[in-house]
Amino acid sequence: MKIELKYTGGILNLPSRVGDLAATADEKELRVILSLCANPAYLNDIEPYLTTLSQRLDMSINEIKECIAFWVKNEVLSAEGLDIAIENAAVAEAHLQNREPAYTGAQILAYVERNKDFRALCCECETVLGKSFTAQDYKNVQQLKEHFKFSDEYILLLLEHCAEIEKANWAYIRKTASNLYDEGISSYSKLEEHFSARRNKRSLEYKIRRLLGIGEREFTKNEKAFIERWIISKVSIDLLTKAYEITIEKTGKLSYSYMSKILDNWQISGIKTIEDVERSLEEYKNKQKLSTSTFDADDFFEEALKRSNEKMMERIKK
Fold first, then answer.
1. How many domains does the chain have?
2. What's residue 65's pLDDT?
3. Half-sphere exposure of 26 (CA within 13 A, CB side)
4. Are 281 and 245 in contact (CB under 8 A)?
5. Same domain membership, residue 132 and residue 62
6. Which residue, 77, 97, 117, sits at the end of a domain?
7. Cβ atoms within 10 A of the Cβ of 298, count?
């Protein structure tokens, strides 16, 4: 079979080394080198054209930089002053990406059609969110990739989290993504750790709400201070329940300060389980058998604190 080249649109000159590297270069690297060789103006001074080239190739400026670096490394290009050009053009790119992408519905659908990896990601996103995507949905996913530079795995975990807490709308997803980015949580492992910590906090917070009868309302400032302290200290719900029961029994009402005093004394005394509480209470009751005074929780807590201080002094002397 004979093949004939048609030069009706002009001639594209490529270094022969490009052909040698065609098997190892990826699609983006080939698209960049073809674009550079087809436009002499890019080669003379690429700086004014980086943003345009980024939009034309559906690639970020950083991706273009990496592709040029590949050809420089393989001695196909030299790129003097490229870093300065990238730094200047990145400002323009940041401004563009802070706006909604100026793509029409047809353009974004065409982009999805010719980028199979992006299309596969969007199919998984549809499954997570339980909806068929429109052009705007595709644009939202593209923003997560292009603006925040999140990996596919990161995006899916983010959407799964939002769906789990029943806030799978794009306004909330974008706000969450922005907050995570600002906090430096940009890798999958960091995001997984962050969400795990939040789930644990929500679980204990929910149990505390039920225990104290708070319901779904917002915490008061005072409540929030005490409850966050208990969550950070990783107090078990069993100890919280016991402390709550003793508080109601002794004061006849919910008193955060009294309840917190109980928990603080237990922590100082090394009491970590209900069994520890029962054992300490039994020991104290036994000491009171020969006394005519009745058992009082306040006395018990003060005694526990005293024992704790004595133990601490013994350790210091040693």
1. 3
2. 82
3. 7
4. no
5. no
6. 97
7. 12
